[in-house]
Amino acid sequence: MAFRDRIKELRRVKAANLVPHPKNWRTHNDSQRAAIRGILSEIGYADALIARELPDGKLQVLDGHMRADISPRQKVPVLVVDLSDAEAEKFLLMADPLSAMAEADPAKLAELAAEVETQSEALRALIDSLSATVEDAEAEVAAGHGVAPLSTAAPPVLTWILIGIPTVRYGEVAELVERLATIPNIAFETANDDEPDDQPATD
Fold first, then answer.
1. CA–CA distance from 135 to each of 122, 132, 142, 148, 188 (Å)?
2. Domains, the chain, ranges and CATH?
3. Where does the chain have alpha helices with state H?
4. Which of 56, 58, 50, 57 is nearest to 83 (CA)?
5. What is the per-residue pLDDT across 131-144, written as a single tens digit (0 to 9) for each?
6. Is 98 helix (H, G, I), strand (E, B) or coil?
7. What pTM does this model have?
8. How crowded is residue 72: how many other Cβ atoms within 10 Å of its Cβ?
9. 15-70 pLDDT, tens digit each
10. How far apart are CA 163 and CA 157, in angstroms?
11. How far apart are CA 89 and CA 21, in angstroms?
């Protein structure tokens, strides 16, 4: 099956001239903003924002709202796509959750985190957090809890909620998690087949 190529062109546009999508649901806390500033300072723009052209010729951002906000006076790379209103909303809704469904190789992640150097305190904190996540997950497995390191054993929607907590409002996440807890098939899987059925799979 051949998939459509919806990218029309790459433009470099002053970030302040980009129009935010009115239904953008992603918010960004101070830690994330600091980390993005750190990676932009040390590497620069190595990926493009995504936007579509409106009838008046302006570009409406679908991905990259925070980057545009951080560097409003700078010309930034923008991939212009030919999405309709409905398609743009679908992309806006699903881009981050689909990315969050990816699994991680803990050994490669640990190796990469150990090799990468940074002068940014925010990036160092993020790298240390990734390293700690790997160590904690491996400790759980070593203790016999049967939890696979950085696994998406939980259903994808719940995995995304847990990963996406920093980007959305905490109250809404808590409410959604409570609702999910009432669904019978929403549960963490365990690799330990000897664990009694009446015991939780994780601490």
1. 20, 5, 10, 12, 20
2. 7-100 (3.90.1530.10), 102-150 (no CATH)
3. 30-42, 65-70, 85-100, 106-115, 121-142, 156-164, 170-180
4. 50
5. 776 666 666 656 66
6. helix
7. 0.63
8. 12
9. 999 999 999 998 988 888 998 999 899 999 999 999 999 999 999 999 999 999 99
10. 10
11. 9
